[in-house]
Specification:
Chain lengths: ~375, ~625
C-alpha cells in the first residue's frame, strides 16, 4: 500500500471517529438534551462542531494533497523554486479564520447570557444546594411545613416537569461542580461563594431512570463517588412528594426498627439529622449548621438528612442502589465500599470526611436497616 | 580546586563522570536534560498505563482511589514540568548556540546550575512516592482542597518541588534570552535566526513572566498549609489560586508546544528542499501566540463563576488565538507546496504533528464556545483536547526533533526500520487512546474519577483507549531501543546528513567543545544552504560544485599539535560550584517539606547553597593554562 493511501485511510478513520461523536449515547450524555438549557448548549455545539469538522476536512485534505503531489520522485534531480512566501496569501489565511470566528462569536456570546441568566419570578422553584465531601444536600427553601421547617433531602433532587428551577449553591468544604449533562452544563460550587444554575426538564422520568449527574471538580478521595440523581415528576406527583417529605418520620415503637432507633439515637445522630414526629409536633434530632454566604443563609447538616431515607433510590452520594444488601455492607464498614477518611473527622469544626466504622454488630445493622427502610 | 583534566586528544573533549558533573558545556547540559526527560517520560508513561488499566472496565479495582489520585497528579505534573518542558530546554540548550553561531550560552555556569536544580527537584518530586505518598491534589492543585489535604506532606512536595523546578526554568530562560540577544554571530540579525531559536526566545519570555506568578501562588499555598495563613480559604478566596495558577498555566501550554512548532519549522524546509514559507509570519504569529497566551487564562475557569461578561471576553480572546495558530499551519503546508518532499523519519513525525495538532486546535475552538464548554469542562473531552495539543502536537514535534538532530548529537543516524515501527505504532496508538476520549467526555464522563459505574455506556471506548495506550507504550520502547542501539551501531551520519539549511549542519557531528572553529559571518536566512547552493534565474537552487557540505573552514580546524584549535577562543573552565549550590537548595527544599523538624535541614541547605554561590562567583572564569 502506498504511503499516500495509508494516510488517506488514517484520515478516514479519524473522521469516522469524529463523526460518531455527533450522536450521544448513555444516560449521562450531553448530546441528548432533555431540557431547554441543555438544548441551547447543544445547538451551539452542533453549529460550531460542523464548522470545525469542515475546517478539519479542508486542512487535512490540503495537507494530504500536498504530500502526495509534491513527494520526491525517483530520477528527478531538479531543485524546487526557493519561494520565500506570499504576503497576499498570508493576509488571506489570516482574514478567513477571523471572519469564521467572528461569525460564531455572536451566537456564542448570546448563548452565554442565555444560559447564565438566573431564573427569577414567583413560579421559579428555589433550591439551595450545599456540596459536601462527598455528597449533595438540597434544601427547598420555599417549601415549608406548618412549623416553618423546610424540605431537606440529599443526593436525589426531585423537580416538577417544565418548571424553572433555580439552584443557589455553595460548598461546605472544597470546590465541587454540579453537573447534570442532560439538563444543563456544569457549575462550580465554591466555599464562601454563591453560584446559580437554572434547570428545566421537559418530561417526567420513570422512577427507576432519573437523570444521572455527578461532581465534576476534583474534590478529593471519593470524587468519583460523589454522584446524584434528578427525578422529574408531573406537577401533581411533585406536590404529593412534597407533602410526603414534609411529614416528620414516625418514631418506631416496636420490633427491629425500634431497637434500630435506639442505636440510631446513640450513634448516628452525632452527624445525621432527622425530623421525627414527637408528642407535641415535629422534633429535630442531630446537628444543623447555618452559614451565611453573600447574604444567603444556608442550612446544612454534617451528614445526609435521613428523615425520608427510604424514599430514595440510592445512597452514599448517589453511588449505591438503596437496598438491604448494600446498606448492610455500608453499615458494616462504610469506607470499605466508598473511599473516605473518617479518621480525620472533627465534629467541633464541622469537618467531616466520611462515615466512621462504628463496629456495629450484625443485629444492630439489621435493626438499623429496618428503621431506615421504614422512613419512606 | 583539582579537576580531572584528562581529555580526548583528538577533540579536546574531557572524559569521565567527573567531567559530566562539572561540565558547563551547553551541549552536554542539553543532552543531560534530554536523558533526564526521557527517563521521566517512561515513569510518567508507566503511571498513565496504570491509570488506563484501572479505567479499562467499570468499577475498576486495580488501584485504590488514593493511589489513583497520586498517579494522575504525578502523571500530569511529571509530563508537563519534568518531561515536555525540559525536553524543550534540552533542544534549546544544544541548538540555540549552534543556530546563532555562538560558542556557548551567555552564562554557562548558571546553565549548569539550572540543570542540576531541575534534576534534584525532579528527584525530590518522585521521592515523594516512597516518603509518605505523592502529591494527590491534581497538578492544578486547586485550593482549598490542596491546602486542606492534611495527609502528611504530600502537597508540600508539590508546592516546594514545583517551586524549585520553576526557579531552574526562570534561570534557564534568562540565559537563553541573553544568549540570543547578545551572542549572535556577525550578520545573524534577529530576522535571520532559525525559527526554532525564535520560538525559544518567545518561550523564555513566557516563562520569565508567568512562572513568578505561579511561584507566588505556590508560596501562598505553602503558607496556608504550614503557617495558618488564609490566602485561599477561611476568608481568603479559592478563586485567587485559580487565577494565579492559570495565569501561569495557560502560557505554560504555549511553553510546551511552541518549541515543537519551532522544530517542525526547521524540519519542513529541510525535507521539502525549500525555505520556510512566510518566515516573518511564522515568527510573528509565534510572538502573537505568546502575547495572547497571557489573555486567555480564564478559559480554564468558565464554570467557576466569573460572570457572563468576563466569560464572553475570554471566549472571544480564546477564539482569536486560533488565528496565529492557523497562520502557522498554513505556512507549513505552504512550505511543502511546490517542494520535493522526502519522507524521512523527522518529516513523518512533523507531518504527524501538523495533522494531529489541527484536531487539538479545533477542539480548542470548541472550548471557546463558552456554553459548550460548560458541558465539556473537566470531562474527558478536555483530556482528549489537550493530549492532541501536547502529545499529538508537542511530543510528535519533539520526537521529530530527536530523529532530526540525533545524528548531530552522536554522529550516527537512528535506524529507519525501527523508526517506521515507532511512527506507525505511535500514531495508531495515539489516536486509539485519545480520539475515543472526545466521545467519552461528550457522553458525560468526568476527569479525575478513579472508577465509574456500569450502565453509563463508557466501557467500550475506555477499553479501546487502554489498548491504544499500550500501543503507544510499545512504540516508545522501540524508540528507546533505537536511541540506545544506534549510538554505537547506527549508520554514520557525517556532518550534514539531511542536506540541512542552518548552521549546526556546517560543523562536525558531534560538534567540538567550542562548536565553531571560526565564528561564521552570516548573510542569509538558511545561511548554510546559501553556502552550498546558488540560485538560477527561475529561483531554483543549483549546487555549487566546489562545496561538498561539512565544515565551513576546515583548514583552521586541525590546529596545533595537541589537537586544540589554533584560533584564540575563550572557553570557561568546568566548575562543580553550580552542582553544590543546587544541592544546597534542594536540601533546603526537603527541610521546608518536613517543617518544623526540617528547619535544621533548611539551615544546613542554605549554608551549602551559599558555599556554592560564593565559590561560583569567586572562582576565575578560566584556569591558568586553559587560555590557549
Amino acid at each position: 500500500m502506498s504511503r499516500s493511501r495509508r494516510l488517506a485511510i488514517f484520515t478516514i478513520v479519524i473522521l469516522a471517529v469524529a463523526l460518531s461523536a455527533c450522536s450521544g449515547s448513555g444516560p449521562q450524555t450531553a448530546l441528548n438534551p432533555e431540557g431547554p438549557v441543555a438544548r441551547t448548549i447543544d445547538n451551539l455545539w452542533e453549529l460550531v462542531f460542523i464548522i470545525a469538522a469542515a475546517v478539519f476536512v479542508i486542512v487535512e485534505a490540503a495537507l494530504i494533497y500536498t504530500l502526495i503531489r509534491f513527494r520526491a520522485r525517483k530520477n528527478d534531480d531538479t531543485e524546487p523554486v526557493q519561494l520565500h512566501g506570499n504576503t497576499r496569501l498570508e493576509i488571506l489565511w489570516t482574514i478567513i479564520p477571523v471572519v469564521i470566528l467572528a461569525s460564531i462569536g455572536y451566537p456564542v456570546i448570546k448563548g452565554i447570557f442565555e444560559v447564565r441568566a438566573i431564573a427569577q419570578g414567583a413560579d421559579v422553584l428555589q433550591v439551595q444546594v450545599t456540596g459536601h465531601q462527598w455528597w449533595w444536600e438540597f434544601e427547598y427553601v420555599d417549601l415549608k411545613d406548618d412549623t416553618g421547617r423546610t424540605l431537606v433531602t440529599a443526593n436525589e433532587l426531585v423537580i416538577p416537569e417544565d418548571t424553572e428551577v433555580n439552584l443557589t449553591m455553595t460548598s461546605a468544604d472544597v470546590i465541587h461542580s454540579f453537573w447534570i449533562p442532560t439538563l444543563a452544563g456544569k457549575r462550580d460550587v465554591v466555599p464562601g461563594r454563591i453560584s446559580n444554575l437554572t434547570l428545566i426538564a421537559d418530561n417526567p422520568t420513570p422512577p427507576d431512570e432519573p437523570h444521572p449527574g455527578q461532581c465534576a471538580e476534583f474534590c478529593g478521595l471519593s470524587h468519583a463517588d460523589m454522584r446524584f440523581k434528578v427525578h422529574v415528576r408531573t406537577q401533581a406527583d411533585f406536590d404529593a412528594w412534597v407533602d410526603e417529605q414534609l411529614t416528620p418520620a414516625e418514631i418506631p415503637t416496636e420490633g427491629a426498627a425500634a431497637l434500630g432507633y435506639e442505636t440510631f439515637n446513640a450513634t448516628c445522630v452525632a452527624c445525621h439529622h432527622v425530623t421525627v414526629a414527637g408528642a407535641s409536633g415535629p422534633e429535630d434530632i442531630g446537628p444543623v449548621r447555618t452559614t451565611e454566604v453573600d447574604g444567603v443563609t444556608f442550612t446544612s447538616s454534617l451528614a445526609p438528612n435521613l428523615t425520608h431515607f427510604g424514599s430514595r433510590t440510592t445512597f452514599g452520594g448517589g453511588t449505591f442502589e438503596n437496598n438491604a444488601d448494600h446498606l448492610a455492607q455500608w453499615l458494616a464498614n462504610p469506607a470499605g465500599i466508598k473511599p473516605m477518611r473518617p479518621e480525620l473527622n472533627d465534629i467541633q469544626t464541622g469537618r467531616i470526611l466520611g462515615m466512621p466504622n462504628f463496629n456495629l454488630s450484625s443485629d444492630e445493622i439489621t435493626n438499623l436497616i429496618a428503621m431506615l427502610e421504614g422512613w419512606e | 580546586m583539582v579537576l580531572d583534566t584528562s581529555k580526548d586528544l583528538a577533540t579536546g573533549t574531557p572524559k569521565g563522570i567527573w567531567s559530566w558533573l562539572t561540565t558547563i558545556d551547553h551541549k552536554r547540559i542539553g543532552l543531560m536534560y534530554a536523558v533526564t526527560a526521557l527517563v521521566a517520560f517512561f515513569i510518567a508513561g508507566f503511571e498513565a498505563l496504570l491509570i488506563r488499566l484501572q479505567l479499562a472496565s467499570a468499577n475498576g479495582t486495580l488501584l485504590s482511589a488514593d493511589a489513583y489520585d497520586q498517579l494522575f497528579t504525578m502523571h500530569g505534573l511529571t509530563m508537563l514540568l519534568v518531561v515536555v518542558m525540559p525536553v524543550g530546554a534540552a533542544f534549546m540548550n544544544y541548538f540555540i548556540p549552534l543556530h546563532i553561531g555562538a560558542r556557548d550560552v551567555a552564562f554557562p555556569r548558571a546553565n549548569a546550575f539550572s540543570y542540576w536544580l531541575f534534576l534534584f527537584a525532579t528527584v525530590m518530586l518522585l521521592s515523594s512516592f516512597v516518603l509518605g505518598g505523592a502529591p494527590d491534589g491534581g497538578w492544578f492543585g486547586y485550593a482549598p482542597l490542596s491546602t486542606q489535604l492534611e495527609e502528611f506532606v504530600r502537597m508540600d512536595f508539590y508546592s516546594i518541588g514545583a517551586q524549585l523546578l520553576g526557579v531552574a526554568s526562570i534561570m534557564a530562560s534568562a540565559n537563553f534570552i541573553a544568549t540570543v540577544f547578545t551572542m549572535r554571530a556577525p550578520g545573524m540579525t534577529l530576522m535571520r535566526i532559525p525559527v526554532f531559536t525564535w520560538m525559544a526566545v518567545v518561550v523564555s519570555f513566557l516563562l520569565i513572566f508567568s512562572l513568578p506568578i505561579f511561584g507566588i501562588g505556590l508560596w501562598e499555598m505553602f503558607f496556608d498549609r504550614n503557617f495558618g495563613t488564609h490566602f485561599f480559604s477561611g476568608g481568603g478566596d479559592p478563586l485567587l489560586w485559580q487565577h494565579l495558577f492559570w495565569l501561569f498555566g495557560h502560557p505554560e501550554v504555549y511553553v510546551l508546544v511552541l518549541p515543537a512548532m519551532g522544530i517542525v519549522s526547521e524540519v519542513f524546509p529541510v525535507f521539502s528542499r525549500k525555505p520556510l514559507f512566510g518566515y516573518p509570519f511564522v515568527v510573528f504569529s509565534g510572538i502573537a501566540i505568546g502575547f495572547m497566551g497571557f489573555g486567555v487564562w480564564a478559559h480554564h475557569m468558565y464554570t467557576a463563576g466569573l460572570g457572563p461578561v468576563a466569560e464572553a471576553g475570554f471566549g472571544v480572546a480564546t477564539m482569536l488565538i486560533a488565528v496565529p495558530t492557523g497562520v502557522k499551519i498554513f505556512n507549513w503546508i505552504g512550505t511543502m507546496w511546490g517542494g520535493k518532499l522526502r519522507f524521512e523519519l523527522p518529516m513523518l513525525f512533523a507531518i504527524g504533528f501538523v495533522s494531529l495538532f489541527v484536531v487539538g486546535g479545533l477542539s480548542g475552538v470548541l472550548h471557546s464556545v463558552v456554553p459548550s464548554d460548560y458541558q465539556q469542562h473537566d470531562s474527558y473531552f478536555v483530556v482528549a483536547h489537550f493530549h492532541y495539543v501536547l502529545f499529538g502536537g508537542g511530543v510528535f514535534g519533539y520526537v521529530a526533533g530527536a530523529y532530526y538532530w540525533y545524528p548531530k548529537w552522536t554522529g550516527r543516524l537512528l535506524d529507519k526500520r525501527l523508526g517506521l515501527w515507532h511512527f506507525w505504532l505511535m500514531i495508531i496508538g495515539f489516536n486509539m487512546t485519545f480520539a475515543p476520549m472526545h466521545i467519552l467526555g461528550l457522553n458525560g464522563m468526568p476527569r479525575r474519577t478513579y472508577r465509574y459505574p456500569e450502565g453509563l455506556g463508557w466501557e467500550f471506548w475506555n477499553q479501546v483507549a487502554t489498548v491504544g495506550a499500550f500501543i503507544i507504550g510499545i512504540s516508545f520502547v522501540i524508540f528507546a531501543w533505537n536511541l540506545i542501539r544506534s549510538r554505537k551501531n547506527g549508520r554514520i551520519a557525517g556532518d550534514d546528513p539531511w542536506d540541512g539549511r542552518t548552521l549546526e549542519w556546517s560543523i562536525p557531528s558531534p560538534p567540538p567543545v567550542h562548536n565553531f572553529d571560526e565564528i561564521p559571518v552570516v548573510s542569509h536566512i538558511d545561511e548554510f544552504w546559501h553556502r552550498k547552493y546558488a540560485t538560477d534565474e527561475e529561483g531554483r537552487s543549483v549546487r555549487m560544485p566546489d562545496v561538498t557540505g561539512g565544515t565551513i573552514s576546515s583548514e583552521t580546524a586541525t590546529g596545533g599539535e595537541d589537537g586544540k584549535p589554533t584560533v584564540d577562543m575563550h572557553m570557561p573552565s568546568p566548575s562543580y560550584f553550580p552542582l553544590v549550590a543546587a544541592f544546597g537548595i534542594i536540601v533546603t527544599g526537603y527541610g521546608l517539606v518536613y517543617l518544623p523538624g526540617g528547619w535544621v535541614a533548611v539551615g544546613v541547605g542554605v549554608l551549602v547553597a551559599l558555599w556554592g554561590f560564593f565559590g561560583w562567583s569567586l572562582e576565575p572564569v578560566t584556569r591558568n593554562g586553559n587560555h590557549d
